Amino acid sequence: MELSNRLLEIAKFVPKNSKVLDVGTDHGYIPVYLVQNSISSEVIASDISPASLQKTIDYVDSLRLNDRIFPRLGNGLDIIKPNEVDTVIIAGMGGILISEILDRNEELCKTIETFILQPMGASKELRQYLIENSFTIVDEGLAKEGRRFYEIIVAKKGESKQLEDIYLDIGYKLIEKNHPLLREFINRRIEDVEEIIAKFGVPKTCKARARYKELKNLVKSYKEVERELEGNQHYRGNGEMGTQ
C-alpha cells in the first residue's frame, strides 16, 4: 500500500522487527504498512473511537492480517501492559495532548524503547515536556503535504539538557542533519510570523508591545538559523554552533 508523505515519514523511524503500538490508528494504515513491509513483527492498533477502530478491523480483516495486527479500543497507552511493545507511535494529535498521554503513563513509559511522536501543533511545548520529564530527543523528521508541514519527533527515555528557545521551536536534530525540507519549513514560519506582525499596526499597550517584540525576535532567530544553513554550518544538539 502507498502511504501519505506524513505517514511514510513516521514509518521510516520504526525500528526493524519492533513490536508497535499505534495510538489513534484511525484506518490502520501505518500498522498494515509496517507488517506488509516486514518492518514490525506485530502491531497493536488502538483508537478511542469505536467507529474509527471498526475501520481498522474491517481493513485488517480484508487483508487477512489478524495474526499480526491487533485492534484495541481504548485511550492512549491505557490499553497495553508493561513490556508488551517496544515502540509507540502517537500521531495526528496536538502536542499538549501527546504530553498528557505520556504523563498519565509515566511508569509504563519506562518499559518502552522508542516513542515516535507527530504533533499537529504545539511542537515546542511537546519538546519542552520531553526534556523536563526524562526523555531525550534522538531524531526528528519533516514531511510536507500541500502547503502543510508535519514535524516528527523520535524520543527515548533518558536525561536531556535544557535547550534554548530556538531549539524547542525548530528541532535541533533537523538543524543538525540539515534536513532537506528545513529551509522551506523555516521560510514558512517566517512568513506566518511576519503576517501576524503586519496585522499589529502600532502596538499601543504594554502587552501588545511585548508581544510585538517577541515576534520580531522570533523572526530574527529564524533568520539566524537560515544564515547558518546557507553557510554550510549546523547547530550541534548541545546548543553550540559548529562547521561540518
Tell me what the structure shows.
- Strand 1 (18-23), helix 2 (29-36) and strand 2 form a beta-alpha-beta unit.
- This protein has helices at 5-12, 29-36, 50-63, 95-104, 106-109, 123-132, 165-169, 172-176, 182-200, 206-230; strands at residues 18-23, 40-47, 69-73, 87-93, 114-119, 135-145, 148-157, 233-235, 241-243.
- The model is unreliable at 234-244 (pLDDT under 50).
- It contains ten helices and nine strands.
- A seven-stranded mixed β-sheet has the order 3-2-1-4-5-7-6, sandwiched between helices.
- The chain folds into two domains: 5-160, Vaccinia Virus protein VP39 (Rossmann fold, 3-Layer(aba) Sandwich); 182-243.
Brief descriptors of the model:
244 residues; alpha/beta; Rossmann fold; 2 domains; 7-stranded mixed β-sheet; two-stranded antiparallel ribbon; 9 strands; 44% helix; 24% strand; elongated; disordered C terminus
Number-wise, the strands total: 9
User: Rg to the nearest angstrom?
Assistant: 20 Å
Low-confidence blocks of residues:
234-244
Largest sheet: 7 strands, mixed
Shape: elongated
Q: What's the CATH class label of the largest domain? A: Alpha Beta
Mean pLDDT: 91
Number of domains: 2
Strand content: 15-25%
The DSSP helix count reads 10
Order of helices and strands: HEHEHEEHHEHEEHHHHEE
How do the strands of the widest beta sheet line up side by side?
Answer: 3-2-1-4-5-7-6
What's the N-to-C terminus distance?
38 Å
Helix share, percent: 40-55%
The CATH homologous superfamily of the largest domain is called Vaccinia Virus protein VP39
CATH-derived topology of the largest domain: Rossmann fold
The CATH architecture of the largest domain would be 3-Layer(aba) Sandwich
Structural class: alpha/beta
